């Protein structure tokens, strides 16, 4: 019995192209499904409840939030909108070498959106580069201040200055959606409708969509990162190499804090484009515990084929204690 090898395609860097998204037609099965779901109010209510329950379960599994609000949490109320996009999600293609049982050729073929974005992240590691730049700037500033203080030029304590630059205090609660969720909403609502049954030809609609940027990851929610099989992580480290990196920074904790703060600002998880025919759900979910009320921004794509939500983003919008005591 002869074994046949599956075709293998190896994409080459700098050849990835983001294809323009194509509009749905009124006869497409995806658009007909939009019309069916838009008329089914009971199904919409059920889907909104499922997304709200996903927020509730995420809150219960968050150890930091649970410690703050207590273990008994329930859904108090929720507000959600449903948007049906005119356009299908964009597709990606790349050039590379294709290996088959009969031949080897240079070709161009579609690739998964996650692989395209991951390749772009590897070639252009902007979050890591900007974080190291912030770290280097903090270390140089720290050492310069120490030298200046040694010669009597600076009398203030540089450690205090560095700590002040890297420290973060709780700011005021946002009065609108989280910036990442708002960005996703603006992109969706610029090319979507809430009444697909009233649109006969979605491909003829005038769309107001932002210009696509090839290979750039969209704002998305935290995704599960697969565990590494090699290079075992030493005990006590939150991630591999933490102790070695920290020990290399002789200026103390403040520059490291600057690095982590910048990395947290610039890092966005890589999420694939939603499946074709997905519907956007967005809104607010209010949770109640024995100690406080919590309002969470939520955004996600519902796939009617798999009947599951994808690319769900959740951001804490407001937390209010039921009992407040004076600070002094």
From TrEMBL:
Segments of this protein annotated with the region Disordered: 186-237
Feature: compositional bias, Low complexity: 216-228
The protein, known as: Uncharacterized protein
């Amino acid at each position: 019995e002869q074994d046949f090898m599956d075709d293998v395609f190896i994409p080459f860097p700098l050849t990835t192209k983001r294809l323009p998204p194509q509009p749905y037609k009124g006869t497409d099965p995806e658009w007909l499904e939009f019309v069916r779901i838009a008329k089914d109010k009971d199904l919409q209510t059920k889907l909104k409840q499922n997304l709200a329950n996903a927020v509730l379960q995420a809150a219960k599994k968050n150890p930091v939030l649970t410690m703050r609000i207590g273990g008994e949490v329930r859904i108090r109320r929720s507000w959600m909108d449903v948007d049906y996009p005119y356009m299908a999600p964009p597709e990606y293609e790349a050039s590379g070498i294709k290996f088959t049982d009969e031949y080897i050729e240079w070709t161009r073929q579609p690739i998964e959106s996650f692989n395209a974005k991951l390749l772009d992240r590897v070639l252009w590691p902007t979050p890591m580069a900007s974080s190291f730049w912030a770290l280097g700037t903090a270390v140089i500033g720290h050492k310069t201040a120490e030298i200046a203080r040694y010669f009597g030029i600076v009398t203030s304590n540089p450690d205090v200055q560095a700590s002040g630059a890297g420290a973060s205090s709780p700011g005021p609660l946002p009065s609108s959606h989280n910036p990442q969720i708002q960005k996703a909403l603006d992109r969706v609502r610029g090319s979507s409708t809430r009444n697909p049954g009233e649109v006969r030809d979605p491909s003829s609609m005038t769309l107001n969509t932002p210009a696509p940027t090839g290979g750039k990851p969209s704002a998305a929610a935290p995704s599960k990162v697969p565990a590494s099989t090699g290079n075992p992580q030493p005990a006590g480290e939150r991630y591999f190499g933490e102790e070695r990196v920290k020990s290399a920074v002789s200026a103390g904790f403040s520059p490291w804090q600057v690095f982590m703060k910048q990395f947290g600002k610039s890092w966005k998880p890589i999420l694939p484009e939603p499946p074709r025919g997905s519907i956007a759900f967005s809104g607010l979910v209010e949770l109640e515990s024995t100690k406080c009320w919590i309002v969470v921004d939520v955004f996600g794509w519902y796939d009617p084929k798999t009947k599951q939500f994808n690319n769900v983003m959740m951001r804490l919008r407001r937390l209010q204690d039921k009992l407040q005591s004076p600070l002094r």
